[in-house]
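job 3f2a | input accepted
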Amino acid sequence: MANPKVRPHLSFYPEEATKNLSEARHFARWLNEMPDDEMTPMLRLGKHDYYIYEPAMLRSGLICMPHRWFLHNGCHHARCWKMEQVVCEGNRKSWRVIKGQAPFNVDQDQFLKNFPQLTCDVASYPHLADVSSIEGKKCFTEFNCNVTLIIS
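job 3f2a | predicted structure (152 res):
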């Protein structure tokens, strides 16, 4: 990957294609059947990294959790699960990842804030629960804002 002559010829994201299926990345197996955590775990948009299994805010204000990155018509997209706010014990607000519904695809241009930005800007969104509080309680990763993300 460090060789500048080889790097442009490597593909890291599956590609949703219907014509000219000539490479492994074009086929449904790589796009649909591989486990999410065995695929490319993040996408850099501008100066910010968006990782799978981390909440992100879309331009519409919706909070979602990307779980797969892929290419479609030369543009990056994410398959995402919806997230909803829930009230837990003691009137504490939290988030729930809704995996039971079909995931939806989001164009890269629709992403507004990644997880570290959301956790650092949590005071700017008083109507939203802290995105670091997610039902399921499995420690996943830690960031520079001293927040531990938990997912189910």
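job 3f2a | The radius of gyration is 17 Å.
job 3f2a | closed
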